[in-house]
Design a protein that fits this description.
524 residues; mainly alpha
């Protein structure tokens, strides 16, 4: 690819279709290796973590000064959430309109920029602070509820739904993993992120799925088992610093009505079938607030808690969820792979090998298989090695599920770093798009346009690079912390176990660091 240097950090392809950003400077990446190696050595020779299987006690948010009273009121009222739902639905419908009726130029249309640059970046960036709160105001779920149940709030049974129990094969996150793989293939293989109309149609397709599943099955089967966005947020929220939990556990133990589960006249039943006093994971909690509204004792509220405590201690290992975490790790890294120059040259070589165009969907599909499957191997191989060496009566399946939580911060921090790069580099162009969301202004494509509209970053390049590397380093530290606690929980330890898992986490962390160092090609 021939490029003309326009500035220290930005390049445009000769045809103006690509913009290339320089990656993290080598010296910053090398500087990160020292703390990573120090942490690895500490973990290798440190004492075992103390056994900790209790739920722990966080800090009750409604006890905060100034804002505590407001939080306490919002805990048990549906109106604030309903207002946010109306806002999100309005924004969603407007984005659909711009995608279908606006300019086909992705960089000038609100549908593509708001969806892929702003919304998806903010979803990932805010999970540590708000957990699964995005699911509470999801426009797909909100519109599906209004259309199927013919009500804005409250509980009037399952009017409009067949209320069938989902079949056994569906009651896991395998459907979400498969849909996640398909959507990633569709997004990256067809340049969906640059096509406003396709983006709008994808959004309507997800809405249609939400409506169909709500019309057929009981509660919110789509949210719990099918939605890849919700399952991604649910997985990552196990690292978040916020949780919705009982104020007094004894009150839940004495409760006989279980209105948080069954609902009442004021609020619907828990949409994912949870009981407030009996769950310790954010994974399937949608933060919808129904339990807080329905609880007659007002025994539900928000807590601050130590970051990653849930993933380290409370979360239960399940085979399907472990695989979803591994798929999540592989796909986040694969998104980075598709944006480096080596990916394009690899597709060209693959196209020559099979006598097909490098831009064909067939070549991309083969490339995606070759790019993601190897990313699944280090963890599976490491767990297999440990299962053979271990003297404990633990199966490969148990070890695979138990240790998978250590992969979450590795995937999440790279996802954060990658999306932060998009937001910082592309965010400066959002003002112009919001001023003209349909892109109706006369516009002549010019290679310099992307440089001047997207070349002005929200943060200096060096600051972005440091933040990205710090995120990856922090993710490795959290991964080691979770691994150390999981070793204690599983009752399996030894030099070979620790060394193997250190190497597994190092492979993923160093590969993601290498991706950040590479120049990034961005479609415009």
């Amino acid at each position: 690819m021939n490029t003309d240097k326009l500035s220290a950090s930005y390049c445009l392809a000769g045809d103006g279709s690509l913009m290339v950003h320089e990656g993290v400077p080598d010296w910053i990446a090398w500087a990160a290796l020292l703390p990573v190696l120090v942490m690895a050595l500490w973990f290798l020779f440190s004492r075992n973590a103390q056994s900790d299987t209790g739920p722990g006690k966080g800090y009750l948010l409604r006890d905060l000064p100034l804002v505590g009273r407001l939080i306490a009121k919002c805990d048990h009222r549906i109106e604030p959430l309903l207002v946010l739902k109306f806002i999100m639905v309005g924004a969603f419908l407007f984005i659909i309109a711009t995608g279908l009726g606006g300019t086909p130029l992705g960089a000038r249309n609100l549908a593509t920029t708001a969806t892929w640059t702003l919304w998806w970046s903010l979803v990932i960036l805010t999970i540590p602070l708000i957990g699964t709160a995005w699911c509470a105001i999801c426009p797909w779920d909100t519109l599906a509820g209004w259309l199927v149940r013919h009500r804005l709030w409250g509980n009037e049974g399952d009017h409009g739904s067949l209320n069938l129990t989902p079949p056994q094969w569906m009651r896991n996150v395998w459907p979400a993993a498969v849909l996640f793989l398909f959507l990633s293939w569709l997004e990256l293989g067809t340049d969906l992120t640059t096509d406003p109309a396709a983006t709008a149609m994808l959004s309507m397709g997800m809405l249609l799925l939400a409506v169909l599943f709500l019309a057929v099955f009981q509660r919110k089967t789509f949210c719990r088992y099918i939605c890849p966005v919700g399952r991604t947020i649910g997985c990552y929220s196990q690292l978040s610093a916020i949780e919705l939990r009982p104020v007094e556990q004894d009150t839940c133990e004495r409760c006989e009505t279980l209105e948080c589960f069954h609902g009442n006249a004021q609020a619907e039943p828990c949409p994912t079938g949870l009981t407030m006093g009996r769950f310790a994971q954010n994974t399937y909690c949608l933060s919808c607030g129904a339990c807080g509204v329905s609880c007659p004792d007002r025994n539900v509220s928000w807590y601050l808690r130590p970051v990653a405590r849930e993933a380290a201690v409370n979360a239960r290992p399940h085979w399907d969820e472990a695989w979803f975490m591994l798929v999540l790790l592989a796909l986040t890294s694969f998104h980075g792979i598709t944006m480096i120059p080596q990916w394009q040259s690899g597709l060209e070589q693959l196209g020559l090998l099979i006598n097909a165009s490098a831009d064909s969907l067939l070549v991309f599909t083969i490339g995606m298989l070759l790019g993601t499957l190897p990313l699944l191997l280090p963890y599976a191989a490491g767990i297999f090695f440990i299962s053979k060496l271990s003297t404990q009566a633990l199966s490969f399946r148990q070890l695979f599920g138990g240790f998978a939580f250590a992969l979450l911060p590795i995937a999440f921090t790279y996802h954060l770093a990658h999306n932060l790069g998009h937001l910082v580099r592309e965010g400066s162009g959002l003002r112009a798009v919001f001023a003209d969301p349909f892109g109706n202004a006369v516009f002549v494509p010019d290679p310099l346009w992307a440089h001047f509209t997207r070349g002005s970053m929200l943060l200096p390049e060096i600051v972005l690079a440091i933040l990205q590397v710090l995120l990856l380093t922090g993710g490795y530290a959290l991964g080691l912390h979770i691994m150390r606690q999981r070793i204690t929980t599983l009752g399996i330890d030894g030099f070979s176990v620790r060394l193997t898992m250190i190497c597994v986490l190092l492979v993923f962390s160093l590969f993601n660091l290498w991706l950040l160092v590479q120049p990034m090609m961005m479609r415009i």
